[in-house]
From TrEMBL:
Its EC number is 1.4.3.16. This is L-aspartate oxidase. It comes from Microbacterium galbinum. Belongs to the FAD-dependent oxidoreductase 2 family. NadB subfamily. One of its GO terms (molecular function) is L-aspartate oxidase activity. It is found in: Cytoplasm. It holds the Pfam family Succ_DH_flav_C. InterPro entries: FAD-dep_OxRdtase_2_FAD-bd, FAD/NAD-bd_sf, Fum_R/Succ_DH_flav-like_C_sf, Fum_Rdtase/Succ_DH_flav-like_C, NadB, Succ_DH/fumarate_Rdtase_cat_sf.
Length: 490
């Protein structure tokens, strides 16, 4: 079969390699260059290697707990059951994970994990190593790669996908396919602060929405608790807190225990909200104190963070550094079954673009790279098999008469600020209605896009409307979706 994979992170490249090895003719299409995207920025590791006293069942339980009870049990079961094979595959494809002197994989622990079960590469450069290994593997196959190509839309014939429409060098181009795998990542650039690289604008999810493909859980946006509070944005891995670093207020007090008994190792949504509230109370950033780990340990365990923080003028071995939350990961996306199938025949979705059900309302740390590898392989295995339409979630009701929109003209910065203020960490009924009305007004006035930047803006507005609407309709706080209780509407 003729297969197109759109996106070249861990999920897309895994799907492409498995599809190629199954005998399909594969073309990888990527917005930038092969291996670009969020995978290469991942400092955290891959969960799924179980030491003494640990097990897949315990990993599943931690995943379900982090997901606030909304994770799909079957999807989580697949994740932990297939995880060991996918990690072994990454090693076989050349990914060099950190090992002890006796050759054993080094295992780390991160927030909300009950055991140390996470493998890393280069200390804090796991994603970069995985991207390197998979990119080399794809190049080695000789499969077709189309770089610097922007996904404009899906080509649909009747009820099935038949290809994709691209924008390359200012010209429109069409590629036919028997199957399309969307691995286009999330939409971090909906927000004023994000850990995501430029270009993470929800292109695949927006294209699916325009084609009538079901999506789910877009209201669940995970904010990473700790990025360095200095531009440009730079993530400080959760593994730093897993090694013992603490979060302190301006008096040096560990304030996160006010919100959760696990303190700094509580689920990400809890820690992020605690940081946001404390920073607002004191009128200054909170700080991450890693000084107790010492300069040699910080340089060895977190070489990338150590280098960048020092380049930015911070000596984190001697003094705490200022941190703030930022939009990090989209738990929702294109609804799929356990093999990546969407509600449109021939269309698969994997990675952050997909809503597999694994993450529920809040992703467990270091499950994202694992999910990409596991479900990328499963989607490839399902190509060519009889199509089984997945059970689709109920479509969201249309929210009418949301509010009076703000009068500011549209710009990407204005949208990102609106989303940060009203559809971010702390949400209110009035704020969500204001955001939804404003986004709709901006969409109605947006001219037809003709270049990549304009297409990105249009995609961000599509995702912003869907996200604000989903957040407004979910009136109960759960996981990463938090509604201020006193202001919830009815």
């Amino acid at each position: 079969m003729n297969v197109i994979v759109v996106g070249s992170g861990v999920a897309g490249l895994t799907a492409a390699l498995h599809a190629h090895e199954a005998g399909h003719t594969v073309t990888v299409v990527t917005k930038g260059t092969l291996g670009d995207g969020c995978t290469g920025y991942a400092q955290g590791g891959v969960a799924g290697v179980y030491g003494a006293g640990d097990s897949a069942a315990l990993h599943a339980a931690d995943t379900m707990t982090a997901g606030a009870g909304l994770s799909d049990e079957a999807a989580v079961g697949v994740l932990v059951a297939d995880g060991a094979a996918r990690i072994a595959e990454l090693i076989a494809r050349g990914a060099a994970f950190d090992r002890s002197p006796d050759g054993a994989l080094l295992l780390g622990r991160e927030a909300a994990h009950s055991h140390a079960r996470i493998v890393h590469a280069g200390g804090d450069a796991t994603g970069a190593e995985i991207a390197r290994a998979l990119t080399a593997a794809v190049r080695g196959t000789g499969m077709a790669v189309v770089e610097h190509a922007f996904l404009v839309d899906l080509i649909v014939d009747g009820a099935a996908v038949r290809g994709i429409r691209l924008l390359r060098d200012g010209r429109s181009d069409e590629f036919d396919a028997d199957a399309v795998v969307l691995a286009t990542g999330g939409a971090g650039h909906l927000y004023a602060h994000t850990t995501n690289p430029d270009g993470t604008t929800g292109d695949g999810i927006a294209a699916a929405l325009r084609a009538g493909v079901a999506v789910a859980d877009l209201e669940f946006v995970q904010f990473h608790p700790t990025i360095l509070d200095a531009q440009p944005a730079f993530l400080i891995s959760e593994a730093v807190r897993g090694e013992g670093a603490t979060l302190i207020d301006d008096s040096g007090r560990r304030f996160t225990f006010d919100s959760h008994p696990d303190g700094e190792l509580a689920p990400r949504d809890v820690v992020s909200r605690a940081i946001a509230r404390q920073a607002a109370r004191q009128g200054s950033p909170v700080r991450l104190d890693a000084t107790m780990l010492g300069a040699p340990t910080l340089a060895r365990r977190f070489p990338t963070i150590d280098r960048v923080t020092r380049e930015r003028g911070f000596d984190w071995a001697r003094e705490p550094i200022p941190v703030t939350p930022a939009a990090h990961y989209l738990m929702g996306g294109i609804a799929t079954d356990l093999d990546g199938r969407t509600t449109m025949p021939g269309l698969f979705a994997v990675g952050e673009a997909a809503r597999t059900g694994v993450h529920g309302a809040n992703r467990l740390a270091s499950n994202s790279l694992l999910e990409g590898a596991v479900f990328g392989a499963r989607a490839a295995a399902a190509i060519g098999a009889p199509w089984r339409r997945p059970q689709a979630p109920e479509p969201h009701a249309i929210v009418k008469n949301a509010a009076t929109p703000i009068s500011a003209p549209f710009s990407r910065n204005a949208l990102q600020r609106l989303m940060w203020d009203e559809v971010g960490l702390l949400r209110t009924d009035d704020g969500l209605r204001l955001a939804l009305a404003t986004i709709r007004a901006w969409r109605a006035a947006l001219p037809t896009p003709i270049d990549v930047a304009a297409h990105e803006d249009a995609n961000l507005l599509v995702l912003a409307e869907a996200t604000a609407s989903a957040a407004l309709l979910r009136t109960a706080s759960v996981g990463a979706h938090f509604r201020e209780p006193a202001l919830i509407g009815v």
